[in-house]
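Before going further, learn to read the protein records used in this course. Taken together, the tokens spell out the fold as the letters spell out the chain. A record is reproduced here so that you can trace the correspondence yourselves:

***
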Amino acid sequence: MSIGDLSSILRQGVLQVLLLASPMLVSALLVGLIVAVLQATTSIQEQTLTFVPKMVVILLMLALLGGWMFTSLGQYTTELFSRIPDMAR
């Protein structure tokens, strides 16, 4: 196992985390922006007005993309475990 192999494993792990987290983060960001504009135009400063829509959108994204996320993470984990014998040499 060389430094290049370890670097590749680390890079793939970071890419996997970004790939799995980005749909929820982007959707929460967009909903937060829309709610903030709505609050600014109507002068409503209720804290729960930003929290509840973000939670609903994140749960909806998890429900829609959960299968893909689980499959992607499973494939990455299987690939990582298949590399363990090569790491022991």
